[in-house]
Task: inverse folding
């Protein structure tokens, strides 16, 4: 598994960029250009054509810098996946398996502890043959000891949600939101409907359950 992770999360993008493979199957031009990826940063270490010193020594110095940059990022990636990614995957897998304990629809998942679930939910849904797909994830906000309900995106690289929180809730806060939703303790719902908050777990769960029905 770890070799596959290293390829898909580190090597694959570098190899695709190096071989001129488009990220998306479309002829439309991108809406924006990302020049901050590793390939771009390594490319900027090439000798500037305006630099009067184009000697082999200068070129070798730039090459050493590029190796150090790429090597450092690779090691960071390995450390991240070993210490954070894999443990988070186990937690999310357990929470997906327990989702029917939260709601009979199977479309609401509760994180037993906060973890970077977005990195895993799509892959695990496919592996675990989750149907219907999960619409909302509930977790406690450690900063304020309040609960969040977050709509799951339609795919890992998209901002749109599978089932955003109801339009009539969006942009409202506190008492106004609680009155509109008919749920006590509401704190907010983002204007796009991708996330909201409640004072309690029960309130956040009620928000998710109500949103499924609207």
Result:
């Amino acid at each position: 598994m770890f070799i596959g992770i290293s390829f898909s999360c580190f090597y694959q993008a570098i190899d695709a960029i190096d071989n001129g493979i488009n990220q998306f199957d479309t002829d439309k031009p991108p809406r924006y250009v990302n020049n901050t990826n590793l390939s771009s940063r390594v490319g900027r270490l090439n000798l500037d054509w305006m630099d009067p010193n184009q000697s082999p020594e200068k070129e070798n110095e730039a090459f050493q810098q590029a190796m150090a940059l790429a090597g450092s990022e690779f090691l960071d990636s390995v450390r991240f996946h070993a210490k954070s990614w894999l443990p988070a995957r186990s937690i999310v897998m357990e929470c997906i398996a327990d989702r029917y304990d939260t709601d009979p629809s199977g479309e609401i998942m509760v994180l037993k502890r906060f973890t970077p679930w977005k990195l895993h939910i799509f892959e695990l849904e496919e592996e675990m043959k989750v149907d219907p797909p999960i619409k909302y994830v509930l977790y406690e906000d450690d900063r304020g000891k309040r609960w969040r309900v977050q709509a799951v995106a339609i795919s890992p690289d998209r901002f749109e949600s599978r089932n955003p929180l109801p339009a009539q809730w969006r942009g409202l806060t506190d008492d106004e939101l609680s009155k509109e939703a008919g749920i006590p303790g509401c704190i907010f719902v983002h204007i796009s409907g991708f996330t909201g908050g409640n004072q309690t777990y029960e309130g956040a769960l009620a928000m998710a359950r109500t949103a499924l029905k609207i």
Summary: The chain is about 45% helix and 10% strand. Residues 56-97 form the longest helix (42 residues). Strands lie at 108-110, 136-141, 146-151, 186-189, 195-198.
